[in-house]
Amino acid sequence: MQPPHFARNCSAFAALSVLIWDGLITYPHEYQHIWKTPTGAVKRMYLLTRYFGGISQITNVALMLGPLAPVSIPMRTCAIWFGFQLISFLSLMFTLEMVLSLRLYALYQQNRNIGMLLLFSISTAIILSFVCGVRTVSRIGFDEACVVRKSPREFAYFSVISFLRHVFLWIMTIRKRNVGRLGGSERAPVVQLMLRDGAWIFAVVSALLATVTPYTYLIPVVAQAMFPWPITLLSVLTCRLILNMQRLKMRTPPPSGPQLTTNISFTTTIESLATSKFESDD
Question: If 0-12 CB within 10 Å is exposed, 13-18 middle and 19+ buried, where does residue 106 land?
Fold first, then answer.
């Protein structure tokens, strides 16, 4: 097996192993907070992220051991394979951004203008990413082993779009850091959770884009070996984000004071069953 094949296959197996391991250790929470709950948008997004990510990685490994195993591979096969990985990545990225947007919509008390702004931003990002993705697949260059040898500039454009989108979501989250104060300087648990999860998701996504993008142009072989990891990371991030919100919902007691008139519920916000209301000092 040639070095590019070996590095690529090892990376894919490792990424799949991490995804399976994360699924196993979080399954008790998944069973309690996902499988035992009524079918709705939250449940669908979780299952899509968890199991589409796993199916995508398993399919990727199967392709590497089958059609992509020969030394000489048709260019069209390479382009289809790359397109499959790109679609998987974009699907998981936008699912994560949808979850973050819905959390913000709840945090802003389901404000109609904020909802329209979030919808416009994610719709614009999807359209621009689709255009960049199509142009990337049509222009990318491979060698006979399906290793990327020429990365078009559209890939960098996509990274910039994704980064700016997450900067926007993080700034919107920080602006509401004082929402739901529970006496003095203590924040409501849901706001603490959103700030904490928002911070590490922003950090991980930024680090991911900052790492993958330069390597795509400087060391294409290394970038090819790293490609499965974004899919695994996005699947893990989104699933844990949803589980954290669901677990908080289960353990947060009903509010007894005037500070928080209605407990913010991630599920009910998405399903439009209740309105989240806070007292804010903004």
Answer: buried
∠149-225-128 over CA atoms, to 5°? Answer: 70
For the four alpha carbons of 195, 200, 205 and 210, in that order, the dihedral sign comes to positive
Distance CA(280)–CA(136), nearest Å, equals: 45
Look up the CATH number of the domain holding residue 194: 1.20.1070
The 10 Å Cβ neighbour count of residue 222 is: 14
Output the CA–CA distances (angstroms, integers) from residue 262 to 232, 247, 249, 270, in the order listed: 35, 17, 12, 15
CA-to-CA distance for 140 and 153, rounded, in angstroms? 10
Would you place residue 282 in the very low, low, confident or very high pLDDT band (cuts 50, 70, 90)?
A: very low
pTM of the model: 0.82
Domain-embedded: residue 80 = yes
| Helices and strands, number each (H, E), in the chain | 10, 2
Domain with 240 in it: 3-250
Backbone angles phi and psi of 175, in degrees to 5: -60, -25
**Pairing, β 148-150 against β 141-142:** antiparallel
Q: Is residue 120 part of a domain?
A: yes
For 194, the token pair is 């959103």
Residue appearing with tokens 């003095």: 184
d(CA 85, CA 55): 12
Paired residues of 142 in beta bridges: 148
At 47-85, the pLDDT tens digits run: 999 999 999 999 998 988 887 777 678 888 888 888 888
Written as one letter, the residue type at 175 is: R
